[in-house]
Amino acid sequence: xxxxxxxxxxxxxxRAKLGxxxxxxxxxxxxxxxxxxxxxxxxxxxxxxxxxxQETFFEVCRSIRNYRGDGSIWGxxxxxxxxxxxxxxxxxKYRDTDDLTDELAPSRAASHALRMDLxxxxxxxxxxxxxxxxxxxxxxxxxxxxxxxxxxxxxFSKSQLARAHQRLRGWLGEEALA
Amino acid sequence: xxxGHLSMEQLIAxxxxxxxxxxxxxxxxxxxxxxxxxxxxxxxHQVRARLRALPTMAPARSQFSVVRGRVISDRxxxxxxxxxxxxxxxxxxxxxxxxxxxxxxxxxxxxxQQIATAMTSSQQLEVALRQIHPDERVIDGRTAQLVIQxxxxxxxxxxxxxxxxxxxxxxxxxxxxQLWQQRVGLMxxxxxxxxxxxxxxxx
Lengths: 178, 203
Known about the structure:
- By secondary structure, chain A is mainly alpha-helical.
- Helices cover 71% and strands 0% of the residues of chain A.
């Protein structure tokens, strides 16, 4: 998902910087789905993900003038999205069910009959662990970048990733090799 | 490593080629001779590949109209705030221009008022003096000398008032206010001299 292309991206961005609503809508059309996907993978609910999407593109419309073109436009929008999604996580932190999954994991892991598919297992991770897994393994962010975005340390990011994979390993069982 | 196998963190470091991990070299070497850890590493690779292959979730509907509405509203608010700031700045500027003008040039307004007041007083004293008919009265030498001195000083002031006309406005107002006040003082003294003499002689 690193290279989502938009035809004439430079021209569209240039017009968007001038406040052209057609160009802004073109950006929304091109990137709202990957942005929503990222938000949805990090957030617990579709409502939260939709809010993050809206916040993201509101921010994009307001701040596109600040985009200097150092990286791809999707890279910039993606960083806005992940930042908004992580902010949403912090706001909803009281809902984080990390302790609950800790309790349920061994029994799940012990039974092949209760083996989950990857989608379910991913959803079962705590919000923080899921965010780290997605940002690192799918979006390709480094532990340093994740630590910065989360306001935590690099070792926190590494340990969260290892912990998440340990749980996925238990929940998925041999399915991962299938 | 308590079981003799790599920890999940070490396996991930090997998978990612993360050489910043202190035990990376040892872990990498261990993998080559451990089928269990090699299988776990393969499993990690597969999990990552499967994560990346998960279907993309799309929003149920476009929210761009909502976003655009918020942007328009935000721009309006920004404009209103800017207008409010401009309005307040303009109001403040006008206030400063009005009050500040007085604050900066209070002496000019004071001077104009002082001149007007002094001229009125002076005119009233002139009238009062004429009513006494000083030229028609007999005065002693000492009083006459005092009257002459006062009249000479008034004449000198009048000359200075004429000369002040050549000054620029600010300086002229200042000077005229000063001279007119002195003139009123001298006129008062002159009237007093005549009135006193008149009362002393019982007229």
